[in-house]
Please model this.
Amino acid sequence: MRYKRSPLMEERLADNRQRILVAARKLVATGGFRAAQIAAVAAEAGLSTGSIYRYFPSKSELFVEVLGEAVRHEVEILRGIVKSEGSAADRLRRAVESFARRAFEGPFLAYAFIAEPADEEVDAERIRARREFGNVFKTVLREGIASGEFPQQDADVASACIVGAFTEALVGPIGPTHRGERRREEVIETISLFCLRAVVGAAAAPARGSVRR
Amino acid sequence: MRYKRSPLMEERLADNRQRILVAARKLVATGGFRAAQIAAVAAEAGLSTGSIYRYFPSKSELFVEVLGEAVRHEVEILRGIVKSEGSAADRLRRAVESFARRAFEGPFLAYAFIAEPADEEVDAERIRARREFGNVFKTVLREGIASGEFPQQDADVASACIVGAFTEALVGPIGPTHRGERRREEVIETISLFCLRAVVGAAAAPARGSVRR
DNA sequence: AAGAAAAGTGAATCCGCATTCATTTGGTGA
DNA sequence: TCACCAAATGAATGCGGATTCACTTTTCTT
Model:
């Protein structure tokens, strides 16, 4: 009779797969893509290099999945904020702040996903990711424009600008130079205000209990 | 007696060096870093692979110089605009527009320099480049803030945001997807208005004879 | 418990390129 | 013109890693 995987086995396999993904993410988060060779991933996951290929057809596909997972998670959070209650401006600000804050928490991972050189396929995925982020912001933008809260503007371009703006501002502190912890909230606020003003077209009051000066 | 290079020879050597740089730039502009192997550069420059190493110690250094040259040129132009007459807002807008317009003209080169994966050293140079661009914008920002034309804000972060904003907005149209020629001026204007509003904190009128709608 | 098939292993391959180097080519000074 | 040295050449080498595969171990079926 044909071989059949027991549920236990099934689970162990799924577990291995997951462990590989986690190991890969961890390596990227720690030392960037450069540190994430297959051999290293295998060691981290407690498997042999050969085994990796039993779960993923190639290194690229593995990392595309790692990136994809992270992005899906991030987008979910942002979507949640965007769909929540409040003015378009407020939701936009909260989304930017939320993203920035998380980027500060996992700097290397963020850096790798935002800016570190990688191979073609992974890079294509990164571009897709940026587009997805952009789309989330585009949603709020459109709502704000429709409601008259924001002035008329090309939402595609403007949302790309938003993504670019906080991305770049974050890579500075995130990448080589680490600004001190103290400045962190200040940077986050500057970024979100920047985006807000850009879109609103007027000095947006810091609003609720945000950190000042 | 000791060997001495004739002026003619001297010139030919300098010429070769220059031709290598041009060849390298051309290849990057055409097919990105991926297409710019030493062998290809050599062929394009009409030399052998070995000869390249007579002029540059390594591939990385060659491309660092290529990038550096391009950046120096760009920064010069931007500096010129920043130092020209006019309100801070106007100079800022013109600088952004100028940069964006040139990026549209040489899309691949811009893409490669802005976003394409490359090796560590080249990438470090790219980061330096972004910082330089940022510094230019920081200058206007500071002036505008000092004069009260712009509201108080962290010029470091804000200038990074500006660079990031137009960079990202350009890589979209520049990279994989090419929006039609028609949208070009529109995109440029959206970008510069975005940056302007972000910094000024108020809807800035399109001013002079800029393209509308 | 034996045989069959899957899963796991890691040393050996393979590959793409940068880099080198033994030769050849061609300026340079006497 | 000769002897010599710099410059140019491009085939051969070296290298970092991904990928493979012959072999071992584990799991499943009867």
User: Anything to note?
Assistant: Chain B touches chain A through 45 residues (CB under 8 Å). Residues 2-3, 5, 9, 13, 42, 47-51, 54 of chain B lie near DNA strand D (CB under 10 Å from a C1'). Chain B is about 75% helix and 0% strand. Residues 204-213 of chain B have pLDDT under 50 and may be disordered.
